[in-house]
Design a protein that fits this description.
389 residues, TIM Barrel, twelve-stranded mixed beta sheet, MoaA-like
Amino acid sequence: MMKRFVSKFPRWTTGFRKFDDFLQVEPKSGSCSTSTSIVEGMRLYGTSCAKLTDAKLTENVSDMLIDSFGRLHTYLRISLTERCNLRCQYCMPAEGVDLTPSPQLLSPDEIVRLASLFTSSGVDKIRLTGGEPTVRKDIEDICLRLSNLKGLKTLAITTNGITLARKLPMLKECGLTSLNISLDTLVPAKFEFMTRRKGHQKVIDSINAAVDLGYNPVKVNCVVMRGFNDDEICDFVNLTCEKPINVRFIEFMPFDGNVWNVKKMVPYSEMLNKVVGQFPGLKRLKDHPTDTAKNFRVDGHQGAVSFITSMTEHFCAGCNRLRLLADGNLKVCLFGPSEVSLRDPLRNGADDEELREIIGAAVKRKKASHAGMFDIAKTANRPMIHIGG
């Protein structure tokens, strides 16, 4: 059996009373450099753009999923809940958020009905998000029902890993084929500061459990913030040495209530410089046209390293994602404020064809790209816990 992934780092004290104080601290002189001296030869590795003409269409692909720019949307993210067992500071404001009353959230039957509508139209990948999707007591049943939908190839989940280790064996039996586990630090004290909760070891245990159950890769999502965890980037890369772990470094993104600060955002070019400086054997991998990540592997490492560059190098031209929120709203762009309710017409007796028309109209209104890094920060949008990522 492979060596267990164990976090061994010195105790860390924040020195900050609250997250706002952390965000307002000026970076050290020169620390905001976006120099590409090391990575100049890698600049050509932008994420590819997916176009309809490049996609392999099948008979069941509906025009409903094709926007006015020819992008084919075959990936649906479904938020199962707005509730979470952590209080991550970049996801939720300190005062918390108002949760949608339970009767206004989609029921399991409604989730499966809408998911079936999408899969029968050409969606072949569904990802379950939240909040924290594993806090739903019926998640195993939802997974089983979704995994049996005709045309679905991938059923994935994004989770904070707090309860995943004990639930994962059953989830796998119910058809869960892929998973992403969020972990922003390898230092327990930092974890407690950022999440306002304990549970670091539980997340580590979940990563180990996923590896032991044969998930390959086990994706670990890490939001990088200057002065908080940017000094751990290479430590995270080391996790990929002996295990099939894909560490995905994510640029810090603005959402309502998370007090986004550009000075705390570490750009992709800077992260890549750090990794190449310590791991000169880093090599670029070929991305799928719809990948949101730029993917790499260190020579001799079993796992991989990826960068999600939503802020500095967007990948809108290859976007194939739609989002169904827990309250039944359809969101066609993560950073766009526009939403349309599918719950209301569903509960008012709309048939499948009427729902397809509503979905198709929303998809056709999708813009070519999001507003750009600084305009995103000024655009009204829901807190991440409402959107589901």
